[in-house]
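Holo prediction. Input below; ligand is zinc ion.
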Amino acid sequence: MQPTIDAHYSDLIARIRDAAILGSCAGVLGWDERTYLPRKAAAYRGEQMALLARLSHEMWTDPKIGEHLDALESAPLPDAPDGTMTVNVREIRRLYNRAVKLPKSLVEELARVTTQAQQEWREARAANDFARFRPWLEKIVALKQQEAEAVGYNDHPYNALLDEYEPNATAAEIRQVFAELARELTPLVSALAEAPHRPNTEILHRDYPIDRQRLFGEQAAAAIGFDFQAGRLDTTTHPFCSGIGPGDCRITTRYNPESFNEAFFGILHEAGHGIYEQGLDPEHFGTPCGSYCSLGIHESQSRLWENQVGRSRPFWEHFFPRLQQTFPTNLADVSLDDWLLAINEVRPSFIRVEADEATYNLHIILRFELELDLLDGNLKVADLPAAWNERFQKLLGLTPPNDALGCLQDIHWSGGGIGYFPTYTLGNLYAAQLMEAARRDLGESDLEADFRRGDFSRLKSWLNDKVHRPGRRWSAQELCRRVTGEHLRPQPLLHYLKRKYEPLYGIG
Ligand code: ZN
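Structure of the complex:
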């Protein structure tokens, strides 16, 4: 007797759920590696992680998964196109194809080359020596081209790489939205640079003892809805959020006693990622219906809380008096307006990770355009530094004095992460568009009154319902259409930036 549809489906789900549980064990070890692992344990941890990665790959590429998918795809499924079963089959197929289409030799070659390339990149950046990194980047671009060919794509090889991070997105779509964004953002940034009001950022660099920063940050994270009974906040060098499983989400930050912004906005950012992870449907853990939609949507949740909420006036109308009580000697003489202007400083600068929320997008657009050209052969790696500097000047009005402050600054390419950068700006765009919809649904003045009272629960519940619970039921574009009524557009982000910055800087 042939197994029934239900039998195929339940064995399929059991297998990928097991793979997810195994993956989450690697998640715990990965978190530990970046927070508490003793220095001498690094090599052994590497062995543990490699074993888990191998087992996980074996589970994902087991031919049984392919057999179940074939059987399920050849029968009419008993639920709707966005029903749980149909969605899980569709999305598991996508992931399975990607896993089996990549030749083992290519996967191993990529792992080997990128491990070494990251080391070479670190040294090349420290020595400000692009020539040293160049052969490695050439190898990586060639391997990523092979990866795109192996996976298959329409139109542009970039789409094959993008699909890993932002399922169903296309380079053509992103190119258009980014171009429109850059067209208005570049003049806005230069207008702000010449504005009458100048931020006094010295107030952010007074003495901020770490223990008090930690308490204040934890209170803010809890207030916006990060559940400390289902998560924790620890310290690390490169902050991240790790959603391990139901009831377990770890966020991290890094404290600087002479700088308030770094840890505080970092905590809000990671808490935003964490609130998304905590909002996924636990019933569907380990399956696409219980997984995050895309990296762009993930990033929208962190940036929504960090910027749209955390750098807004109503948020600080609640928190600023409390901040003054926490750091009385620093802030007794500082007004709310001065504070808002300082935490919203816009200034073109060379380093992406230090950029403000407006200029940040120009850094991303630059990388996205260069990645497209590198991948389709329009730009040779040897010509990258010149191309970087020329575009940087056009977009940000500055020319990097050296490659360490230019094309050598990010780790992504050395790790093989081509196609990842656009998800950051997609996050800003989705955040603005979702927030516009939340204001419409919940009432703008009511929502602001909530924030002034330190109550963020209605916004959080709205995000839980609209964005978190659906998991991967729809693509990011479709989710955006359903929640906001429109395709992804640059206008909500531009509108938000102008509406915030023009009065703050005394222009417009
Ligand atoms: Zn993030």
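The radius of gyration is 23 Å. That is the main takeaway for now.
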